[in-house]
Specification:
Order of helices and strands: HHHHHHHHHH
Radius of gyration: 18 Å
Mean pLDDT: 93
CATH topology: YutG-like
Bound molecules: magnesium ion
Low-confidence stretches: none
Distance between the termini: 42 Å
CATH class: Mainly Alpha
CATH architecture: Orthogonal Bundle
Number of domains: 1
Number of strands: 0
CATH superfamily: PgpA-like
Length: about 190
C-alpha cells in the first residue's frame, strides 16, 4: 500500500497543469478562445488598443497556475459528479439545481479572481452578474436536464476576470517603462 501511494503523482509542472486544464475545459465545452473573448470584451471598455492575443496569452498563463489548476479540476469534477447523481444527501440536489443561495461556487470564483487582487474580484463580480458569452452559454445549458455547470460557470468567469486584470497589469507595466524610456522588462512574472 505504501509503495502504491508513492507512485501517485500529485505534483505537476506548469505546462502539465495548463494541458490538463485545457483538456478538462474542452471536455466540458469551453475553449480558451471563448474565455479570452470575455476578457477582451471586459478590458477593452477600460483600455484602448488591446489585442485578442494578449487576452489569450493571459488566459493561458492563468490556467498554468497551481491554485487555478486545483480549482478547475475540483470544480469540473463536482459538476460531473452532480450530473451523475453521485453525492449523498441534500447537497446533491442543491448543486445539481444550482441553488441561487448556495454561494460556494462563487467563493471558488472569488478565490481564483483574487489571485489578481481586489480588481480581479470586482471584475469577476461584473462577469458573474452580467453573464457574457461563454458564461451565459454555460449558465443556460446548465438548466437543461442532465447538465450541471454550477461550478464551471464561476470558474470560467473568474479565469476571464483574472486574465482581464492581468491585461491591465501588463499594459500599466508597459506604460511605466515608456515613462522611463526603456523597453519592457520585468524582474517578476505578472
Ligand atoms: Mg455557479
Amino acid at each position: 500500500m505504501a509503495n502504491q501511494d508513492k507512485k501517485k503523482k500529485i505534483i505537476f509542472t506548469r505546462q502539465e497543469m495548463f494541458e490538463f486544464n485545457k483538456k478538462t475545459l474542452l471536455k466540458r465545452g469551453v475553449t480558451l478562445e471563448s474565455i479570452a473573448e470575455i476578457t477582451y470584451q471586459q478590458q477593452s471598455k477600460y483600455t484602448d488598443d488591446i489585442s485578442r492575443d494578449i487576452c489569450l496569452e493571459s488566459v493561458e498563463k492563468i490556467l498554468s497556475l497551481r491554485d487555478v489548476f486545483h480549482h478547475v479540476q475540483l470544480g469540473a469534477e463536482i459538476d460531473r459528479l452532480a450530473e451523475e447523481g453521485m453525492f449523498q444527501g441534500p447537497i446533491q440536489d442543491i448543486i445539481y439545481e444550482d441553488l441561487g443561495l448556495f454561494g460556494i461556487d462563487e467563493t471558488m470564483g472569488l478565490e481564483v479572481a483574487g489571485l489578481y487582487g481586489t480588481i480581479g474580484q470586482t471584475n469577476f463580480g461584473d462577469i458573474d452578474v452580467n453573464k457574457h458569452g461563454i458564461v451565459k452559454r454555460l449558465n443556460d445549458a446548465g438548466k437543461e436536464p442532465g447538465i450541471c455547470h454550477t461550478f464551471l460557470d464561476d470558474i470560467v468567469g473568474a479565469i476571464a476576470a483574472a486574465a482581464s486584470t492581468r491585461v491591465a497589469q501588463v499594459m500599466n507595466e508597459d506604460l511605466a517603462h515608456e515613462d522611463i524610456g526603456v523597453k519592457r522588462f520585468s524582474i517578476f512574472d505578472l
